[in-house]
Amino acid sequence: MRPPDMSTKAGIVYAPHELCTSFDVRHRIIVLFAVFLLALIGETVAMEPKPIPVIFDTDIGTDIDDTWALALILASPELDLKLVVTDSGDTMERARITAKFLEASGRDDVPIGVGIPGGKIPLPQAPWAQDYNLDSYRGEIHKDGVGALIDVIRRSDEEVVLIVVGPAPNISEALQRDPSIAGKARVVAMSGSVDKGYNSNPEPAPEYNVRASVAGSQAMYGAGWNLLIAPLDTAGQVKLKGELYRRLLGSDAPMVHALLDNYRVWAPEFRWGRYDPAIESSTLYDALAVALAYDEALCTIEDLKLEVTDDGFTRRKASGNPVRAALGWPDGGREAFEQFLVERLTSYR
Ligand SMILES: [Ca+2]
User: Fold this and answer.
1) How far is the CA of 60 from the centre of ligand 1 (A)?
2) Measured in angstroms, how far is the CA atom of residue 72 from the centroid of ligand 1?
3) How far is the CA of 243 from the centre of ligand 1 (A)?
4) 48 CA → ligand 1 middle, Å
């Protein structure tokens, strides 16, 4: 008498689990291997960092560098662009330029918010978008851009990064309407001039974004959130020329085409400097703020206390606001960033 759960084979007694055929064994190995592979894939996916939700607050249309910055956001898988809000001057016209550029780049799903309109500011880029009908834009257009900005921050489960590359009246208005946003967002801004001015001048200057809205900047610097600035000290040195710029000229990427078309229309209209789109870019101040939103190792960053003065300077002062500032480049850092920028833009489809 043998236990009921046992079998015999050629006179030998086997327990049921020992009766597996070679097919069963292979099957088990395949299943185990599949489970292992799935676990590996799962781990790889889990290791991929989630894109950072960002809002782009921009005075696109005046200086061309905002368009380069927007292009870098689109070409950065590290970032998830939730909203573009236009800031200062004719914000509706700026929304039209934004919409045409996003559509040309295949991203007309991105919502656009029209910011608080201000006084007359030249828009040398406007002729590029004069034939564009904003009603034809596929994505949402929010007439209250500040309200849309607040909504994105409020609804986000994660910290939102505000990339601010223009004067900041929208930001001060948003902080007034809902001061709690300062606890749910951090800011990376092209803003200020700490130890260097324009063109690497050893004397700091009232930087345009600060000077154009001193009250807005004072509110942004004083909000108590994590503020990282890309001041003229570093952002004012980014410019593409030579072989790097020629790579852009030779690119067949639709976004690069739209960018260079913009640049060619803008250059003869821009009154504050002369640039030749055939040989080099203009100074690309705003692009650095975008990249710093996901890679702070690009620059040497210092913790400072800064005061925004009524005449638009950002001066060191013991009682000033705590600000993190990208004050310098590591050795070869600027050149590496310029190369990175071109690689990102030309490989984006
Ligand atoms: Ca700008």
Assistant:
1) 6
2) 14
3) 26
4) 31
What averages of pLDDT result for each successive group of 10 residues across the chain (349 residues)?
Answer: 40 41 56 56 65 98 98 98 98 98 97 97 96 97 98 98 98 98 98 97 97 98 98 98 97 97 96 92 98 98 98 98 98 98 97
DSSP state of 130: T
Beta strands in the chain (DSSP E): 7-9, 12-14, 52-58, 79-86, 112-113, 141-142, 160-164, 185-190, 227-230, 300-308, 314-316, 321-328
What are the tokens at 274?
């002369």
d(CA 226, CA 160): 11
What tens digit of pLDDT does each residue of 161-185 get?
A: 999 999 999 999 999 999 999 999 9
Instruction: Give ion ligand 1 contacts, CB < 5 A.
Output: 59, 66, 165-166, 286
Tokens for 280?
């080099």
Selected from 3.40.50.300, 3.90.245.10, 3.30.390.50, 3.30.70.980, the CATH number assigned to the domain covering 52-347 reads: 3.90.245.10
Q: Measured in angstroms, how far is the CA atom of residue 190 from the centroid of ligand 1? A: 8
SS3 (DSSP) at 322: strand
Query: Cα(first)–Cα(last) distance of the chain, in Å?
Result: 75
Domain ranges of the chain: 7-47, 52-347
Q: Tens digits of per-residue pLDDT, 266-284? A: 999 998 888 999 999 999 9
